[in-house]
Specification:
about 250 residues; alpha+beta; metal-binding; Jelly Rolls; single chain; about 20% helix; dioxygenase; globular; 3 helices; oxidoreductase; 14-stranded antiparallel beta sheet
């Protein structure tokens, strides 16, 4: 009986450890994600002759909301840092990380690949998205201080050179109306704040991008990455889909 009891305790401990690891680094099957429609007539906006560009309505409103629902069903984990005094960027937000090559390929083939057909870096061409998909959630008062995004080496000789951010929530679009009868849920409020701001020499603001639901923002990272930050959220909840464009 004592041996059986010890085995049971070990099984329970192993299960708790596995559950903890799953929560910290969850994986979600593609069947849980929204269906992504192919994007037609994609139009990009370059920002001030930089390696920054945006794509309006890359995700539909329905797709954006479905990703938020899926991410919330997994459960966010808070991310923080010690701040500049410890040599780190200040960070206060919630995060999820999933590894899903199929989702990455689906989004890449839905239209992103067209945007990079003429972009080469050191003779390399864009081949797809990093399968490490991250979701960020910023509530009121949360932000991500000034930092740069590093390049990452992937398998098969691939290396990331561009950051992809897709805003899943944002401020009101022109002529949009609010539903005053809706319950007072902070996530339903139009987003105020949370801009992504890029800095050049002498800390001059080069570009300031206000989150808009479904809009994609792409910027070069690694050695040529501009210092940037995610400003404080003043109202609502900011949700972001994050991946990286890989070259080979």
């Amino acid at each position: 009986m004592a041996e059986t009891s010890e085995k049971k305790k070990r099984r329970m401990a192993e299960k708790r450890e596995a559950d903890t690891k799953k929560q910290k680094n969850p994986t979600l099957t593609t069947s849980k994600w929204p269906l992504i429609k192919p994007k037609q007539n994609i139009q990009i906006t370059h920002l001030k002759d930089t390696d920054l560009f945006t794509v309006q309505n890359f995700f539909t409103s329905a797709e954006s909301k479905a990703f938020i629902k899926a991410a919330e069903s997994i459960g966010f984990v808070h991310q923080g840092s010690l701040g500049p005094t410890k040599g780190e960027a200040y960070r206060d937000n919630d995060r999820i990380s999933v590894n899903d090559p199929v989702l990455a390929e689906t989004i890449w083939e839905s239209g992103l690949h067209k945007l990079f057909s003429d972009i080469k870096i050191r003779g390399k061409v864009a081949v797809g998205l990093n399968p490490n998909i991250r979701f960020y959630r910023y509530k009121v008062g949360q932000r991500f201080g000034r930092h740069i995004d590093e390049s990452a080496d992937l398998d098969e000789g691939k290396r990331t050179h561009y950051t992809l951010l897709i805003y899943l929530s944002g401020g009101l679009k022109p002529n949009a109306k609010t539903d005053l009868s809706s319950p007072k849920d902070p996530s339903s409020d139009p987003l105020v704040g949370g801009e992504t701001v890029f800095y050049g020499s002498r800390n001059a603001v080069v570009a300031e991008v206000a989150p808009t639901e479904g809009m994609a923002l792409l910027h070069i990272h690694g050695a040529k990455c501009m210092l940037h930050e995610a400003r404080n959220v003043a109202k609502g909840v900011k949700y972001v889909f994050r991946s990286d464009v890989a070259f080979a």
